[in-house]
Amino acid sequence: MSDTLTESDIPTLADLLGFARAVAADPQLVARLELHPTERTWVRIEGPEGSEAWIIGWPPGTETGWHDHGGSSGAFVTASGELSELSLGVPIPTDGWRSLELAEGVDRQRSLPEGKGRSFGAHHVHQVINPSDGQHAVSVHCYYPPLPKMRRYLRNGDVLRLSLVEIPEEW
Fold first, then answer.
1. What is the per-residue pLDDT across 9-63, written as a single tens digit (0 to 9) for each?
2. What is the four-CA torsion angle of 137, 20, 124, 59, rounded to 10 degrees?
3. Which secondary-structure segment (H or E) carries 46?
4. 58, 81 in Cβ contact below 8 A?
5. Starting at the edge strand that comes first in sequence, how are the strands of the sheet with 73-80 ordered?
6. CATH code at position 132
7. pLDDT (tens digit, 9 = 90+) per residue, 70-93?
């Protein structure tokens, strides 16, 4: 028997989003996450077809900062509360740069209330925020392949600068 993956073994964006929706709608799974009053919390769960998934708690006002997922595609769904996503409407090259000047009009913003979600490709750069002043949010995220690294960026106006590359052992 071969250990080589075929295209049918790899989860699609629809598979990742469907899984995140199913988990977000399951109160028993979401309840596995303990919430902290001021810090984000998370618990890892098994995703479909070898993907990895996370349930994440977002205290009021918390956010991720600008980041990508190291070449993994993904999806996330808000299980409770509301999240806001700021993203770039163009793919960003994954390697070979430290600073990019962004063109006008590439910024995107969307609100993701309870039950809403989205999927994204391997070159997606975004920032996720709980904009609430008083309510926690909880979301479910799913990635394939499992996250090899996360690149974190600083943004100053139209300039995006690579600031840190994290590997799984660091989060």
1. 899 999 999 999 999 999 999 999 999 999 999 999 999 999 999 999 999 999 9
2. 10
3. strand 41-46
4. yes
5. 41-46, 52-58, 137-144, 73-80, 117-120
6. 2.60.120.10
7. 999 999 999 999 999 999 998 888
Q: For 90-112, how does the pLDDT look when each residue is reduced to its tens digit (9 = 90+)?
A: 888 877 889 999 999 999 999 99
Residue 140 lies in a domain: yes
Q: Kindly report the length of the chain.
A: 171
What span, in angstroms and rounded, lies between the C-alpha atoms of 57 and 80? 9
Q: Is residue 1 part of a domain?
A: no
Distances 71 to 22, 25, 79, 113, 123 between C-alpha atoms, Å? 24, 27, 25, 26, 6
Beta bridge partners of 159: 101, 156
* pLDDT surpassing 60 at residue 132: yes
